[in-house]
């Protein structure tokens, strides 16, 4: 699975960035906050020959993040990207990481800079794969899987008794519920486990909500529920000894959406604490960074399951990257209402059948943004 190097040079002549916000009736709850609308930032880059590619930038948090990311891209990063001849998207990625490091430190915003660079990287890979006439997965690896398994996600534990049957009816057999809201979560999870059908899997995601004592109690009391994994039971900055203590209890521990950089992911692979490693390619790394991580995860005998809870472009990129990495993990599919995801129709009805087919469309399969999205547009800027 070596990173391809032939015919992937390009030069950017134009960048467009779009911020969208969709009002929603049912807020999306996590242990650390509530999403009262669904935001997204999509990027389109165009090369000097008229080729183009699409990317996505993380915009879920903070609440004002989407418009900020567009302005950050246009006012701080775009000028570093335009007009140079890049041998590959990865070379652009590495250059932008180096070139923005001091700016990111100066303003205390390494995350937003990493997210903008990730979006540009995704767009770069979409561009070169489209030019080659190959799905991105096949551009990255000739041995890419034809499809990847999916699981239903974004389900608050209180809503799970209604949402899981609806997801099951859509074809899902794997479900992840959000916990970390209170002591009653244990009883609620046990009740869900009691009604799961044979062959189904149940995962839980605490979103870093617990102390070590709380996490240990949850795992101990839900041991008989045979959970597929417990995700982010502790803050990412918790002591290694605490993470190791939970891993020793025997339930798979998952995490990675809040790890940044190949070095830190390398440590996560070698630590033998996380059984499931979940980079989020719109938060850090794009394709260039996360493909390298995915290879190390596989070589380390762990499960690579990309984290994602955003719009349709990032979801498609996550699916393509998982397929390129062999397809042995699972793709996270948010089942909450979000036109910024569902209007793209990528993967078609196939994603609701428990898997996502990569298909034959070049790149990510996105030619234009769906016209229906533009009623939700809050900001559009161009740099050329």
Automatic annotation (TrEMBL):
The keyword Lyase applies. It holds the Pfam family MR_MLE_C. Keywords: Lyase. The keyword Phosphoprotein does not apply. InterPro entries: DgoD-like, Enolase-like_C_sf, Enolase-like_N, Enolase_C-like, Mandelate_racemase_C, Mandelate_racemase_N_dom. It comes from the Bacteria. GO terms for molecular function: lyase activity. Residues 161-252 form the Mandelate racemase/muconate lactonizing enzyme C-terminal domain. This is L-alanine-DL-glutamate epimerase.
């Amino acid at each position: 699975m070596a990173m391809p190097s032939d015919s992937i040079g390009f030069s950017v002549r134009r960048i467009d960035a779009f911020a969208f916000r969709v009002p929603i009736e049912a807020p999306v709850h996590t242990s650390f906050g509530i999403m009262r609308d669904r935001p997204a930032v999509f990027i389109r880059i165009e090369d000097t020959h008229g080729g183009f590619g699409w990317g996505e930038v993380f915009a879920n948090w903070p609440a004002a993040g989407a418009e900020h990311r567009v302005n950050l891209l246009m006012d701080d990063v775009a000028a570093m990207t335009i007009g140079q001849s890049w041998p590959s998207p990865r070379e652009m990625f590495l250059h932008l990481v180096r070139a923005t490091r001091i700016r990111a430190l100066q303003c205390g915003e390494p995350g937003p800079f990493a997210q903008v660079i990730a979006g540009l990287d995704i767009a770069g890979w979409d561009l070169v794969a489209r030019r080659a006439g190959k799905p991105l997965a096949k551009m990255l690896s000739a041995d890419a899987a034809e499809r990847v398994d999916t699981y239903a996600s974004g389900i608050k534990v209180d809503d799970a008794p209604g949402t899981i049957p609806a997801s099951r009816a859509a074809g899902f057999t794997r479900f992840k519920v959000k916990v970390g809201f209170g002591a009653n979560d244990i009883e609620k999870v046990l009740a869900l486990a009691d009604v799961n059908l044979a062959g189904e899997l149940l995962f839980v995601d605490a979103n870093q909500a617990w102390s070590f004592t709380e996490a240990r109690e949850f795992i101990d009391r839900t041991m008989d529920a045979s959970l597929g994994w417990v995700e982010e039971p502790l803050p990412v900055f918790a002591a290694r000894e605490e993470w190791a203590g939970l891993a020793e209890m025997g339930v798979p521990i998952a995490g990675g959406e809040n790890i940044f950089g190949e070095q830190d992911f390398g440590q996560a692979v070698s630590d033998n604490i996380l059984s499931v490693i979940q980079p989020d390619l719109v938060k850090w790394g794009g394709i260039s960074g996360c493909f390298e991580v995915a290879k190390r995860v596989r070589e380390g005998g762990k499960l690579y399951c990309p984290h994602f809870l955003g719009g349709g472009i990032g979801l498609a990129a996550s699916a393509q990257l998982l397929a390129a990495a062999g397809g042995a993990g699972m793709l996270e599919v948010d089942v909450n209402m979000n036109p910024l995801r569902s209007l793209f129709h990528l993967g078609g009805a196939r994603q609701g059948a428990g898997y996502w087919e990569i298909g034959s469309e070049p790149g990510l399969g996105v030619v234009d943004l769906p016209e229906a999205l533009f009623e939700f547009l809050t900001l559009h800027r161009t740099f050329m």
